[in-house]
Design goal:
Blueprint lengths: L28 H11 E3 L12 H6 L5 H11 L14 E3 L1 H14 L4 E8 L7 E11 L4 E5 L5 H7 L13 E3 H9 L8 E3 L2 E2 L1 H15 L8 E2 L12 H12 L5 H9 L8 E4 L4 E4 L5
Length: 288
């Protein structure tokens, strides 16, 4: 297994000038997940911790690069990252931020890791929610392992999560390509995949594109829109998404083909993307 591509921090996953912050941390996926949980707060779960976010804190969820996230953390608290911040003192993000910061920390320790975009089936029975997790290479067991670095004890109880977040079963987190394939085979209902009232074929297809981009070092925000992403299931090029889904479901089978797939203008992240939450175009270069 060639894990070299997943060892090097690049682009949005790079800590940049903040590399010193994640150097010398406790070793391993479990210890690093605990650190991530002590420095980040999920934007939409904050109220369950008794935290009411202000406008500036909500804005933090739109940062794209690990370096920017670390800048924010260090700017408000100079203590080492091993010191857990109080719930209201943490940097605000979403699942993608938990995963990407975790990935950056793992890579800094020489552990191959990548952020995966897909759907979590452990939040509500019969539903698969839009979600991101970490995937790291367990050298001892010679397999890729999924970790949900967001799931601290509070959220485990809040959502009634019964799985081990340090080894998420593949049928409980479906990478986007697997979700697409299951629906195409008639084994799952596409309307079970999404978030809030956004669901269905178009949503799954968009996440397939996001996962292909992430596998090529472009881990975008869950609401960034570009290329072939459309909010109309009738406009999807299903044969095209079939191809992307197959490649991203098994990204180590043909890395060269995965790279070629990303270079397609319908998939490659352009200099400017549409932030669908803020309703505006944003230069990606501003973040990482």
């Amino acid at each position: 297994m060639n894990t070299r591509p997943w060892l090097t921090p690049e682009g949005l996953s790079s800590p940049g000038d903040r590399a010193g912050l994640i150097a010398g941390l406790p070793q391993g996926p479990a210890a690093l997940a605990e650190i991530v949980q002590g420095i980040l707060m999920h934007e939409h779960v904050a109220p369950t911790y008794g935290v009411q976010l202000d406008a500036d804190q909500h804005e933090q969820a739109h940062l794209r690069s690990v370096e920017e996230v670390l800048d924010g953390i260090a700017g408000q608290d100079a203590r080492p990252l091993t010191v857990a911040r109080g719930p209201g003192e943490r940097q605000v993000g979403v699942c993608r931020h938990f995963s990407l910061v975790h990935v950056a920390m793992l890579r800094a320790q020489g552990i191959a890791a990548r952020a995966r975009c897909g759907f979590g089936g452990y939040f509500e029975v019969g539903k698969y929610y839009d979600h991101w997790v970490t995937e790291y290479w367990n050298a001892d067991e010679k397999r890729w392992v999924l970790v949900d670095a967001q799931m601290d004890p509070h959220q485990m109880k809040l959502f009634g999560v019964a799985i081990d977040p340090l080894d998420v079963p593949r049928d409980q987190f479906l990478v986007a390509g697997d979700a697409w394939a299951l629906c195409r085979e008639g084994k799952a209902d596409p309307d079970a995949f999404g978030i809030l009232d956004m669901k269905g074929w178009w949503f799954i297809a968009s996440n397939v594109i996001r996962d292909v981009a992430a596998l090529n070092g472009r881990e975008m925000l869950p609401w960034d829109v570009w290329g072939a992403m459309v909010a109309d299931s009738d406009r999807i090029d299903r044969a095209f998404i079939d191809r992307l889904a197959a490649l991203s479901s098994h990204p180590d089978a043909d890395p060269a083909a995965l790279r070629v797939a990303y270079e397609d203008s319908r998939v490659a992240v352009p200099p400017v993307v549409f932030n669908n939450v803020l309703g505006r175009d944003e230069p990606v270069a501003q973040s990482g």
